[in-house]
Specification:
Order of helices and strands: HHEEE
Structural class: mainly alpha
Number of strands: 3
Strand content: 5-15%
Strand order of the largest sheet: 1-2-3
Oligomer: single chain
Largest sheet: 3 strands, antiparallel
Distance between the termini: 24 Å
Helix content: over 70%
Length: about 170
């Protein structure tokens, strides 16, 4: 027993708590992104429904206008045909605009999901890094009784610090 055991336990516990926090933060971001994606998909469906309804209304206006032209005694069929074509074109434009909006919302939902997955993955990597760093620190503390004052976390080798030069000397 070197008397360092309580410090080692605290260092490892602190690393574990930080790792759990990193995982929780990544998971929370993923959940928020998934909720945003679900809302985007719901808005896309609503945009399609709105476009369909607007096209239905436009076609109703088209039929009324065509009926008015017929009732007024216009015999020029080309006027009636032009009106029918223009009316249908307006209805199709409404459907197209709704589809474009829906696709944009769906693309946003896909991006939200991707960002959520990336945040969750980053949380896992952050947790792993925290645990590894905590382990290296604990290992360095255990080795300080053998003359090392720290551990190089890149190589895992023990180092004695040369305070006068501020650099580590590998043992």
């Amino acid at each position: 027993m070197t008397g360092m055991e309580p410090m080692l336990v605290l260092a490892l516990a602190g690393s574990a708590v930080s790792a759990v926090g990193a995982i929780a933060a990544g998971s929370a971001q993923k959940q928020a992104s998934d909720r945003n994606a679900a809302m985007g998909e719901a808005n896309a469906a609503a945009a399609r429904r709105d476009a369909t309804e607007n096209a239905r209304r436009q076609r109703r206006v088209n039929r009324k206008t065509a009926g008015t032209i017929r009732n007024q005694g216009f015999v020029a069929m080309d006027v009636l045909e032009d009106q029918v074509r223009e009316g249908e074109l307006k209805a199709l434009d409404l459907l197209h605009a709704g589809e474009v909006k829906a696709i944009g919302l769906e693309n946003g939902a896909t991006l939200d999901r991707m960002q959520g997955k990336a945040a969750q993955r980053a949380g896992y990597f952050s947790a792993a890094g925290t645990l590894l760093k905590g382990g290296a620190t604990a290992y360095g503390s255990m080795n300080s009784t053998s003359g090392y004052s720290t551990v190089d976390t890149t190589t895992g080798r023990g180092m004695a610090l040369d305070i006068s030069e501020g650099q580590g000397i590998y043992e």
